Amino acid sequence: RLTSLALHPVIAPELIRGHVHLKCTYSQPPSKPPPQYLVLWSRLSTAGKREQIHRETTPDSFSYVEMDGTNLRLGDTVFCTVTAFTGDTPEQQSLPEESKGFYAGIKFLPESLQIAEDGKEHVLTALSTVPIACPGQDDSCKITLQLNTENLGKNSHSPGPPDIALSACQVDLLQSPCSESSCAAATVTVTAVTDFARDGNRISRVTAEPVARADLLWRTYTPKDVKVTVRDLPTGNCYSFTDPHIITFDGWRYDNYKIGTFLLCQSTSRVFEVHVRQWDCGGHRSATACNCGVAAR
């Protein structure tokens, strides 16, 4: 009886003669006569529609489909459903077993980020779940991703200045042996921009796009965006105004009537300082200085 079989179908990517294939493997039970296998391949498209893409009967304990960019595209989640049988009666057939969904394309880990305006760097990893093919002799075996940031504001409807900064505008996914659902990976760091404004929590996103690929498989593919929520932190204020009166971050007040260039503010923990230049704006009548220039690093 085949009804109680456990076939455990699993999908894994494979590069065959320069083309990306998906291979469904499953357990082969000892039985006489040896069973045949009905393998149904289906995909869940980016639009959320499930459709069958291939069907075959085989004596082998594996089945292949090619990712051709037409019937099977990057961005699809793929399933294989396997039934073993030795005849036409129910006793001679196993129950159909479906594999876990295999996402074919580029993933970002984590899929979303929550960061704060504290200067900390957060690592974002881009990985390809399918092998990187080499289209021609002159092409290196890599996918170059162009990365961009977009500010969506507090509620995704009020864009403004950038809220996040990336350590690189492009990353290369270099061909490597597939292991643990990754066939190529690259990292970039994401940092929240400290804008000194009390503008509340805001939402940005990181977008990626493959650069100048000739093959159809990658040319029409756009990976999913990464949502980044930036948590606003309170900021300190200091002032230098009129002739000039100075108020420090902790509220201490004093005057500086001298003429010259002065170090107004300097951080002890990072490269940040402000210089101010003051000139004589009171003439002979009074010892008054006014700000006439500022430089910040």
From TrEMBL:
Key word Translocase present: no
Pfam families on file: Ig_VWDE
Recorded GO CC terms: cell surface; extracellular region
Swiss-Prot/TrEMBL keywords: Disulfide bond, Signal
Domain VWFD: 236-297
Superkingdom of origin organism: Eukaryota
UniProt-recorded Gene Ontology molecular function terms: signaling receptor binding
Cited PANTHER family: EGF-LIKE-DOMAIN, MULTIPLE 7, 8, VON WILLEBRAND FACTOR D AND EGF DOMAIN-CONTAINING PROTEIN
Protein name: VWDE protein
